[in-house]
Amino acid sequence: TTSDVDKRRILETVLETVGDRATVVAGAGTNDTLHTVKLAKDARDSGAHGLLVVTPYYNKPPQEGLYRHFVQAAEATELPVMLYDIPGRSGVPIATETLIRLAQHERIVAVKDAKGDLFAGSQVMNSTDLVFYSGDDALNLAWLAHGAAGFVSVVGHVVGSELHRMIDLHRAGRVGDALAVHRQLLPVVDGIMMKAGGAIMVKAALGMVGQDVGTTRPPLVDADEKQNAELRACLVAGGVKLTDS
């Protein structure tokens, strides 16, 4: 629900705020290839360090259409591209064979996986140099175990330091300790991702930890009293310190 002007303003604000402390990857994907190319160029011109390009949604292109769409996005700028595979929202997955083809492009370097097919992801990682990131907070630890580099997380807006710790522990071979963090965060994932949709609930959660991020935009609606109460209980159970209670 953000306009092109909104996207540019958000990106420029983030870049100004974080400076050189982080790599900023800008969302540039739509279900219109020409519009995606425009957004990619806008992000490049604003100073983004990379692009996140989602599978075209609603129009359900065939695999050859997906391939051409992603290649055109990658050709639009010199920035590295992370593909976003989320068939639950787009209606069509990026097939393993298509990912392997796309990996041959020098600027297509990573995948945000919200498809949840760990075996297929393992096959792609075994056959290419694509770097995988979990795009499903329920599977964060599972993706690490299968070779993913990290997460592109919704709950990370609230528990980012804990997720960072999980990654560090897993990389250090302390798998049991990483599992303990995963289990600690299960109520947080449940409260934000499983109740009323991540965008709605993460906004509510941010308000509970002292971050005023405003309301949702239509067609989304804000969490109601019952949802907020359930979310608050989940956050407390996951060890999150609230500031609104």
What does this structure look like?
With 245 residues, the chain is α/β, with parallel strands linked by helices. The protein has two domains: 152 residues, TIM Barrel, CATH 3.20.20.70; 84 residues, no CATH class. Helix content is 53%, strand content 10%. The chain contains eleven helices and six strands. Strands 1-2-3-4-5-6 form a six-stranded parallel sheet. Strand 2, helix 3 and strand 3 form a beta-alpha-beta unit. Helix 3 runs parallel beside helix 5. The longest helix is centred in the last third of the chain and has 19 residues. The protein is globular, with a radius of gyration of 18 Å. The two termini are 30 Å apart. The relative contact order is 0.08. The mean pLDDT is 97.
The spatial strand order of the largest sheet comes to 1-2-3-4-5-6
Helix content: 40-55%
Q: What's the total number of strands?
A: 6
How would you sum up the major sheet? 6 strands, parallel
User: End-to-end span in angstroms?
Assistant: 30 Å
Low-pLDDT runs of 5+ residues are none
What count of domains describes the coordinates? 2
Q: Let me know the CATH homologous superfamily of the largest domain.
A: Aldolase class I
Name of the CATH architecture of the largest domain: Alpha-Beta Barrel
CATH topology of the largest domain: TIM Barrel
Radius of gyration from the alpha-carbon trace, in angstroms: 18 Å
Kindly name the structural category: alpha/beta
Give the SSE order as H and E letters: HEHEHEHHEHEHEHHHH
What's the number of helices? 11
